[in-house]
Amino acid sequence: MKASLAEALFYFPENHKLSGTIGTAGGSLVKCIASNIRSYNLFRDTCSVQQGLGHEGNLVLVEVASDTAFRMEVEDRQGIDRLLKKGDHFIGVLASRHSGTSESGDVPETGIRIDDGIELHLLSAGGVVGISSGMPAGGHKPMSLKAVGLVTDSNGVVDIFDAYGAHDAELNATAPVILVCGTSAEVGKTTSAAGLIGALSRCGLSVAATKLTGTGRRRDIDKLRDAGAHEAMDFPEIGLATTYTSPDRFMAGTYTLLNRLNASKPDIIVAEAGGDLIEANVPTFLASAALMHGVKAIVIVAGDVMGMMGAVSYIRKYAPEAAIYLTEPKGRNPITTRERVMYELPGLTIFNSLSVTELDTVARKILYA
Fold first, then answer.
1. Over 80: is that where the pLDDT of 240 sits?
2. pLDDT band at 18, cuts 50/70/90?
3. CATH node for 177-368
4. Domain layout of the chain by residue ranges
5. What does 169-237 look like in DSSP terms, one character per residue?
6. Comparing C-alpha atoms, which of 56, 57, 217, 64 is closest to residue 126?
7. What's the maximum distance between 2 C-alpha atoms anywhere in the chain?
8. Of 78, 62, 60, which Cα lies nearest the Cα of 15?
9. DSSP letter at 367?
10. Which of 59, 98, 188, 240 is close enough to 235 for a disulfide, judged by CB 3.0 to 4.6 Å?
11. What's the pTM?
12. Which of 99, 30, 39, 108 lies closest to 63 in space, CA to CA?
C-alpha cells in the first residue's frame, strides 16, 4: 500500500459482510468504520484516499501497527467492538482527547501531515485518532497506527462536522434539562443518567436523552436509549467525534444537538456530561446563560464526599441558584457518606442511583421543585 493508494477507490458493498470486513480500499480489506463517524454516510459517494494535512474532524484510513496495546478493539457504527490485529485497516476520525482514566492525545490546530506510514495513535474505543500525549500508569501503550491517507469524497477531504450540514446559531425553546455530571470518568454517570430516565418514564413522561460532552461511544447512548428514552443521540451524530474542541464549534454543535432532541417534543431531557467538570467544554456549557436557562437540576456523581464538595463549589461559581442533587459513590459506606453530606453539604439531597425506590423519589422531587 504505497502512495498510489491516493488514487484507489473505496468499495462498500450494500450488505458489507466480507469475512468480517466491510469492503476494500485499493485492494486491502477495511475491517470497520469507527462508531464516532455517525453523521456522515460513507455509502453515499464513491470515496478515495489522499495524503495531505489532516485536521480535527477529518476521516483517516489507518493500518494497525501494534501487536499488543492498551486497547485492541474499535467499536463500529453498529456498536460492536471489533477486535483488531496488526495489519488490519479501519477508518477513524482525527480529534483530541484529554482523559484522566484512559488515552489522551491531540490533533494540533496546525494539523497533522498524513503521509504514507506516519505514526498515529488510537485515542478511544470509538475510533478517535491523533498523537498520543499520555496514558494511565502501568506501562500501557496506545495502539500504534500507520497513516494511509485522508478520506475524500466529491467535495474533497471529509470533515464530519461540515459534512453534517448547517449547524444552529442559537438554542430554540427547550424542554427542562437534568444535567448529570461528575468528578471523573468511570464514577457512574451513565448508570445514574439511565436510572433517572427509567424513573422519569415511570412518572409517565416522554424522556429524551443525550451525552453532551466528552468522547463519544455508541454503547453509552444505546444504554440511555435502553433505559427508556424515546429519543437519544449524542454529539457524534451532529459531527463532533469529541468535545475537546473549540468553544465556538462546541456551542454550535450543542445548540444543534439540543434542537434536534427538542424536535421530538420530549417532556424532559436527561443530559450526561462525559468526563469531568473541568474539561471537554463542560465549563463552556456552564458559563452559557442560554444553555443553563433550560437546566432544571444538576446531578453530581462523585467518587467520595470530598469530590462532591469540590464539584458543588465549582458549579456554584457558574450557577449559584442551581438545584443540585448528589448520588451515593459506588463502593463507599452509604451511612458514613450520608452523615458527611449532612454536615458538609447540608440541605442537598443524596440518593442511591441503583435503588428504584430512591430514583422514583428524587425524580418526583426534581419535577415538582
1. yes
2. very low
3. 3.40.50.300
4. 3-163, 177-368
5. SS------EEEEEESSTTSSHHHHHHHHHHHHHHTT--EEEEEEESB--HHHHHHHHHTT-SEEEEGGG
6. 217
7. 68
8. 78
9. H
10. 240
11. 0.92
12. 30
